[in-house]
Design a protein that fits this description.
The complex is a heterodimer. By secondary structure, chain A is mainly alpha-helical. Chain A has one domain. Helix content of chain A is 57%, strand content 11%. Chain A has a two-stranded antiparallel ribbon. In chain A, strand 1 and strand 2 form a beta hairpin. In chain A, helix 1 runs antiparallel to helix 2. By secondary structure, chain B is α/β, with parallel strands linked by helices. Among the domains of chain B are: 96 residues, Beta Barrel (OB fold (Dihydrolipoamide Acetyltransferase, E2P)); 153 residues, 3-Layer(aba) Sandwich (Rossmann fold), CATH 3.40.50.261; 42 residues, no CATH class. Chain B contains 19 helices and 14 strands. Chain B has a 5-stranded mixed barrel with strand order 1-2-3-5-4. Chain B has a 5-stranded parallel β-sheet with strand order 7-6-8-9-10. In chain B, strands 12-11-13-14 form a 4-stranded antiparallel β-sheet, with no helix packed on it. Chain B is flat and about 165 Å long. In chain B, 19% of the residues are buried. Classes of the chains: A mainly alpha, B alpha/beta. At the A-B interface, helix 1, helix 2 and strand 1 of A face helix 4, strand 7 and helix 10 of B. Strand 1 of chain A pairs parallel with strand 7 of chain B.
């Protein structure tokens, strides 16, 4: 589950929450789903908190990447 | 002093001569928009140059046309180099063109419309080819000038909204002749990288500045690109061909960045909200299950499971007793029926049925015999009566009787007819003896006397007879005077007497 993209994690989380809100889930399944949901919440939050600054790079003619400096 | 009179030809010739001497009308450059452009069979093209206020006739002759670098069309803004010449015959002047060059925007406008229609017809703008822009991109490419305002706007916006993705910048010229091929090359180059979204664009500028984004090669590169492309060329009002082909058009570079990435704040809110909803619904599920469990444990059966057995036992007893009662009732009912049958006469003495039937049969035969005899005797009697009938014994007697009654009738008719005849004769005699028939004149005389009598009565009423007795009638203007008021002094009055008229005057 850790390999899922943010988008997939969020979608999966939404699915599980919708399923739980319907209420007609056996208790054992509900507990399983809830645990999965909490795990997905952690994954999503980890991803959202992982980067504090986007990285911008210039692709040079020879294919090299150099960091973009906006003050140039 | 009488002035010299000129012919039309003379004045037109004079104007032509004067204008041809004027160097201000030779080898001049005239700027304007082409309209009414018409090619004539001999190869000369005639058109009108116009601006907002005025128009100028112009012509380009066949031998100059071959030097043109483009095909002139209506609506094009052009600069015409030429000389004003007078066309004597029709009395007008026109600009004879040596060369025509395109002037700025009119040219771009036409190219734009042409390419737009061409690509539209080919289906490059069709909605079905539009790719979806990924919601949560990790890598975003930007094809633009690396030193422009556009790239700074895009990077700033992405960093602010969604610092989770990497931005790769593919530098390119964005104006001038080299721009279009570079943009095209960078779009192709960008596809080598694992990009979720590609933004292509530049900041605002004139139509010439933005022109590379109206080039066909750029349009086709965008269309063929596998990565979803957001175009962001110029300002909101600027529309380029690139905008029509791109999967999504952004009005500005900043807007393109906003469309490319979500807001991380919103995503965090979203995750938090989903967490709350998960907790809430899980709690509800647990609560519901608890309530269900309580409902079940509260039931008698769970508390006292033997009660099920007891209830079933009772039910079984009840059923058995019902069954017993029911079968007994059926048996006794059938026994009773059997007894009744056994007691019945028929069952004891079956022959009685035969006797009973025999008796009724015999009685039927008897009554049949009796009634048939009766009918026969009745009819025999009737026959005797008929036989004894006088008419049958002596038919002539009937004839005789009828003869007598007929004679009676004849006698009676004879008598009454004779009486009628004699009565009528008497009446006739009376009429013959009447006065009127004997002396019809008597009636006439009587009627005449009556008439004379009437005339005498009328004589008495005649006013003229009154005059005989000394009365008179006074008239004025032929009107009878009946009042003093009818006349005035001096009026003539005629007095009618028995034997004449006296003419008088009122005094």
């Amino acid at each position: 589950m850790e390999n899922m993209s943010f988008e997939e994690s969020l979608e999966k989380l939404e699915d599980i929450v919708n399923k739980l809100e319907k209420g007609d889930v056996p208790l054992d399944d509900a507990i399983d789903e809830f645990n999965k949901a909490m795990n997905l919440v952690k994954i999503c939050n980890d991803k959202l908190n992982s980067a504090e600054e986007a990285i911008a790079k210039i692709v040079q003619e020879n294919g090299d990447l150099i960091e973009f400096n906006s003050n140039e | 002093m009488e002035k010299e009179k000129l012919t039309v030809s003379q004045i037109n010739a004079y104007i032509k001569k004067r204008m041809s001497m004027d160097h201000g009308l030779k080898n001049i450059y005239v700027k304007g928009e082409i309209s009414n452009y018409k090619s004539y069979p001999r190869g000369h093209d005639y058109f009108t140059l116009k601006d907002e206020d005025s128009q100028l006739k112009a012509v380009i002759y066949n031998h100059r046309k071959r030097f043109l670098e483009f095909v002139p069309e209506n609506g094009m803004k052009v600069i015409v180099k030429g000389t004003i010449e007078v066309y004597e015959k029709n009395g007008y002047y026109q600009l004879k063109a040596n060369s025509i060059t395109e002037d700025g925007l009119g040219h771009y406008h036409i190219l734009f419309e042409k390419l737009k229609n061409k690509l539209k017809d080919e289906g490059l703008f069709d909605e079905k080819y539009k790719k979806e822009i990924p919601k949560y991109p990790k890598h975003i490419g930007v094809v633009t000038a690396s030193n422009g305002a556009a790239v700074k706007d895009i990077i700033t916006t992405i960093k602010r909204r969604y610092p989770l993705c990497e931005i790769l910048i593919f530098p390119s010229l964005v104006q001038g002749k080299q721009a279009a091929p570079q943009i095209t090359a960078q779009i192709k180059n960008a596809q080598k990288y694992d990009l979720d979204t590609l933004i292509i664009g530049r900041g605002g500028g004139s139509i010439e500045d933005l022109w590379p984004f109206n080039e066909e090669i750029v349009a086709r590169a965008i269309f063929e690109c596998k990565t979803p492309i957001i175009s962001a060329v110029g300002h909101e009002i600027d529309f380029t061909i690139a905008d029509f082909v791109a999967d999504l058009r952004a009005p500005t570079p900043t807007a393109a960045a906003e469309l490319a990435v979500p807001q991380i704040k919103e995503l965090k809110n979203n995750v938090n909200q989903l967490t709350r909803r998960a907790n809430k619904s899980m709690n509800k599920i647990i609560q519901d299950k608890k309530i269900n469990l309580n409902n079940i444990t509260d039931k008698q059966i769970i508390k006292n499971p033997e009660s099920i057995y007891d209830i079933k036992q009772m039910h079984l007893d009840h059923l058995i007793s019902n069954l017993n009662n029911f079968s007994k009732a059926i048996i006794s009912e059938n026994k009773n029926k059997l007894k009744i049958l056994e007691k019945s006469n028929i069952f004891k003495n079956p022959e009685s049925i035969y006797k009973l039937q025999k008796n009724s049969l015999e009685s039927l035969i008897n009554s049949l015999n009796y009634s048939s005899k009766n009918i026969i005797s009745t009819n025999k009697n009737k026959l005797k009566i008929i036989k004894n009938n006088t008419a049958l014994k002596n038919p002539k007697k009937i004839y005789h009787e009828k003869q007598i009654s007929l004679n009676n009738y004849i006698n009676r008719i004879d008598y009454s007819s004779k009486k009628i005849i004699s009565d009528n004769r008497n009446q006739l005699e009376i009429i013959k003896n009447s006065k009127i028939l004997k002396n019809p004149n008597e009636i006439k005389i009587r009627k005449q006397n009556q008439l004379l009598n009437e005339i005498d009565k009328l004589e008495i009423l005649n006013p003229l007879l009154t005059l005989k007795r000394g009365y008179s009638i006074a008239k004025s203007d032929d009107k009878v005077i009946t009042s003093v008021k009818d006349v005035k002094t001096g009026d003539e009055v005629d007095i009618k007497l028995n034997d004449g008229i006296i003419n008088t005057k009122v005094i």
